[in-house]
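Hey, quick one: can you model this chain's 3D structure?
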Amino acid sequence: MIDYKTSEEIKIMQHGGHILATVLNEVMDAAVPGITELELDTLAEKRIRELGGEPGFMKVEGYRHTTCFSTNDVVVHGIPSAYKIQDGDVVGIDCGVFYKGFHTDMSESKRVTKVGSGKLEVRSDKVDKFLEIGKIALEEAIKQAVIGNRIGHISQTIQRIVEKEAGYNVVRSLIGHGVGRELHEAPEVPGYLIGSINRTPELKEGMTIAVEVIYNMGKPDVVLDRDHWTIRTMDGKLSGLYERTIAITPDGPLMITE
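Sure thing. Here's the predicted structure for all 258 residues.
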């Protein structure tokens, strides 16, 4: 059953989402060659608590960290490790904040580059194109999140941009979701469309959802590591991850994680 939020509850989520966006942006900026995933995870926890929130992922049974890392071929749920980030790595960081009874969820990906002479190294190749497509797909999908549309409009948009226009593959076994009192709520928000849009849930005022673009440069197949958390691409190729929490309002999609 979908849990519709009041305007007051959405305001609370907005505050939590602001904490999350602030912290995740700081952590992404700190993701430079030589720093470890665990150091970045520690930074995320410290900053979330300083800003008045709690690490949302620590409320997931059996999980002890603030973030999940998707480095290179890791798709989702990678446990932060002592791995030192290398120049050229594609790093995705997923993070959640729990604030006054409500969760928010967000992820971002980037290509790590060396810093030299005060400037970031400029690159432009298939990796940059791959990451740019994920950003575009997320932005365009969120535009579909208006009253009267359906979840399928979001799903269809992600799939069209990622697969039909760019030639990559949306991961089928991992999807977006409702978010609020629980980290994962109804409805499911897939990045692909199966069947008729009219058979997917209608978007209504008060819904709060995490829109996720989870896609691979190669095939969509994934495999679970022995740690029973980390999910990787089966073919070892790059994966990308972008996510924002939004609310459905009469004025259009409201970005909660900003």
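One thing worth noting: The domain at 7-255 is CATH 3.90.230.10 (Creatine Amidinohydrolase).
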